[in-house]
Amino acid sequence: MAAFTAEDPSDRAWFDAHWARIRHDPGVVVRTAVGENGEVVGHVAVFGPPEEREATYWIGREYWGCGAATAALRELLGVLPERPLHARAAADNGGSIRVLEKCGFVVSRNERGFANARGEEIDEVVLTLSGQAVPFGSPR
């Protein structure tokens, strides 16, 4: 369901340069998402200017549907007091929208954006987190 990827996801040089920029940008908070057995399952991050801070995450396909994204995002949101935060998801990506809703985000508007992974403009939802994040382990 991932829609928003690099123009060429197989370009390793681009990927390495992109992650070097992320790791060295003091305005980006990025954490490794770790599974129940200590394995790396993906990453979560918050980036952007103060008035437009955005949460994002990427979880390996083999870990979809097992709560890894929700747990990792809740952990990150629990240590970041800044609000509001925004997030985006492809409108047809119900799993990602549900992860964000479980963490307290609510749909605030609809937009259209170009999705490299799909090679076309798609409908997307923008979600906003205004209050406190849902603590880790909460059933929500």
Blueprint (SSEs and pairs):
Blueprint: H1 12-24, E1 29-34, E2 40-47, E3 54-59, H2 68-79, E4 85-90, H3 94-102, E5 106-115, E6 120-129
Antiparallel strand pairs: 1-2, 2-3, 4-6, 5-6
Could you please describe the fold and organization of this structure?
- The longest helix is centred in the N-terminal third of the chain and has 13 residues, at 12-24.
- The protein has a three-stranded antiparallel β-sheet, covered by helices on one side. The protein has a three-stranded antiparallel β-sheet with strand order 4-6-5, with helices on one face.
- Helices cover 24% and strands 33% of the residues.
- The protein has three helices and six strands, in the order H-E-E-E-H-E-H-E-E.
- Strand 1 (29-34) and strand 2 (40-47) form a beta hairpin.
- It has helices at residues 12-24, 68-79, 94-102; strands at residues 29-34, 40-47, 54-59, 85-90, 106-115, 120-129.
- It is globular and about 35 Å long.
